[in-house]
Amino acid sequence: MSPCRIHAMNPLLKSRKIIIMKLLANQEYSNAESAARRFIELYPDEVFGWKIAGAACFYLGRYQEARDFLLKAVVFNSRDPEIFSTLGNALFYQGRIKDALRCFERSLEIDADHSPALNGKGLCLMGLSLDRAEEARKCFERALSANQSQPEVYCNLGALLSQLGQLDEAVDLQRKSLELNPTYAEAYSNLGHALQDLGRVDEALDALEKATQVNPHSAVLFSNRLYALNYHPDKTAEDIFKSYQEFDRLFGLPHRASWIPHSNDRDPERRLRIGYVSADFGSHVIGYHLEPLLANHSREQFEITAYTERVGSDGLTARYRRLIDHWVPTKELTDEVMAERIRSDGIDILIDLAGHTSGNRLGVFARRPAPVAVTWMGYGYTTGLSAIDYFLTDAVMTPPGSEHLFAEQIWHVDCPVGTYRPAPDMGEVGPLPALTNGTVTFGTLTRGIRINHRVVRVWSDILRRLPGSRLVVDNKSFVTETAQARLAEQFAAHGIERERLIIGYHSPPWDVLRSTDISLDCFPHNSGTTLVESLYMGVPFITLAARPSVGRSGSTALIAVDHPEWIATTEAEYVDKAIALASDIERLATIRAGLRAEFEASPWRDESGFTRRVEQAYREMWRRWCATPQKK
């Protein structure tokens, strides 16, 4: 926010304005707010006080108060682009993106080159849809043309390019942002995201650690670092879990003293109120597993509430809304307010579907607003929060002996801990490509963060032992020629020629799978939904059972279709199994011809059975709570 223009005025009034502006410029936002409120008392008809109070509240994260002050400011001056752009920012952070966009457009009607409004409009367009990415990019570029000394614009443009898979350009933009502001935590965090998607996990962790050093009070920044840690190829599970325990120490345990007993009716067999918390009630991979559960929930036994952090809606959002009894938008709610809302709704069991992914509300779970709390599906590993009771999983993903790696108590259901509803456009399996190509094509749809030095070495061993075989790597992480060349260089270091690699990105990837004979899973962090998609498309895969639970999702997928023979326990065994599978083309063709039918007959497609298993788990969790002495 740039300084207000000060016209000829009463010397005392002018002096007060100068003092308040200095407070704002020095980031003394609480003092600036107090001074602005006093100014309003003295000069209620002056726009200045309302405008500054709104700006101060915005910087303090009190967006509703900011909005109220700025709407009053508009009454006094409807021709100030700063008021509209700051109001747009407040609305944006409340999740009211369309309203925010109108404010930014109004600001630009007044001043077409107003950089904060251009930046805000770009953010809104990003938030509405990636289909408007080019419009958003032009907004950011126009803002930089007007003023090249705006670290936040470089940061936002870099975040946009990361979403588009233009990761090298994204890294450059975040570094430019940090040149302008070396203490910009969000830029460090976005830099970490881009580096991790490039597979440069150690560099990513360094950037994410700097973000937490700049802002040690941000749970979001700490979550980002934990997310990246899961993919580290060399750290032990025990070392990684220590960081999750630190998250609990900083952001979970401090709330324990304020927990209050729950007054929910302790009838163990009554109809239960279930709350699902997620930012992904829309087009997202979680929908393959979540929608079937919601569609099959017993309405006689369960009343369902969705606490949705999602901004905007799509076709899947509309389907979710029809499957849910109560729909509660949460973007505008603080953790405290949201926790109180959940408590007042009488939720019995609260389900986290996000873990440490974007838009999570772990701060709400830390306040323990429901008697029973569970985490499932959206993250694949512990939240680290001792405030959450259970980690819903299966014994393949988290075998006995792995309990010490989880903050929650492990709760097993029969394998798999999920179901899968295929997309309607996937099409038929098709014949085995090797029959016509004369060579075996391996493939992966995984993101770059999973392809580490161990994976490249093992995959290179497979390709060397099968002369003429090829490897397809298809993911948004490799949409640019630069990213493709970088990955090819990693394989070249192991003697694999570039022409044996087919690197790129296609969406949807169904034709890529139809052109693949055998899929290769990553480790120590396995892939997820793409493995299930591979099986459905008739493509077997080799996986390495690594650390619980993110390193065993491939094992769960295979056990559920009764093909444990494709699970390796060492890297050498992984190579041998891939070679054996690729060396018998007739057997491979038979597998392909029958795999979809096997999948259809497996628990992956038993939506009703899976729902009953989950509901049985919920009921038993509830009975346990009812049977325990009342406590916080």
Automatic annotation (TrEMBL):
Keyword Glycosyltransferase present in the record's keywords: the answer is yes
What Enzyme Commission number(s) does the record list for this chain?
2.4.1.255
Asked if the keyword Glycosyltransferase belongs to this entry, the reply reads yes
Which keywords label this protein? Glycosyltransferase, Repeat, TPR repeat, Transferase
Named in its record, the pathway it takes part in is: Protein modification; protein glycosylation
Repeat region (TPR), residues: 81-114, 151-184, 185-218
Q: Tell me which domain of life the UniProt entry assigns to the organism this sequence originates from.
A: Bacteria
Q: For the O-GlcNAc transferase C-terminal domain, which residue ranges apply? A: 255-410, 436-603
Instruction: Offer an example of a GO molecular function term for this protein.
Output: protein O-acetylglucosaminyltransferase activity
Q: Which PROSITE patterns match?
A: TPR, TPR_REGION
InterPro entries xref list: Glycosyltr_41/O-GlcNAc_trsf (IPR051939), OGT/SEC/SPY_C (IPR029489), TPR-like_helical_dom_sf (IPR011990), TPR_2 (IPR013105), TPR_rpt (IPR019734)
Alphabetized SUPFAM superfamilies for the sequence? TPR-like (SSF48452), UDP-Glycosyltransferase/glycogen phosphorylase (SSF53756)
So what family is this one in? Belongs to the glycosyltransferase 41 family. O-GlcNAc transferase subfamily.
Which PANTHER family does this UniProt record tie to the protein?
PROTEIN O-GLCNAC TRANSFERASE (PTHR44835:SF1), UDP-N-ACETYLGLUCOSAMINE--PEPTIDE N-ACETYLGLUCOSAMINYLTRANSFERASE SPINDLY-RELATED (PTHR44835)
Protein's name in the database: protein O-GlcNAc transferase
Q: Which organism is it from?
A: Allochromatium vinosum (strain ATCC 17899 / DSM 180 / NBRC 103801 / NCIMB 10441 / D)
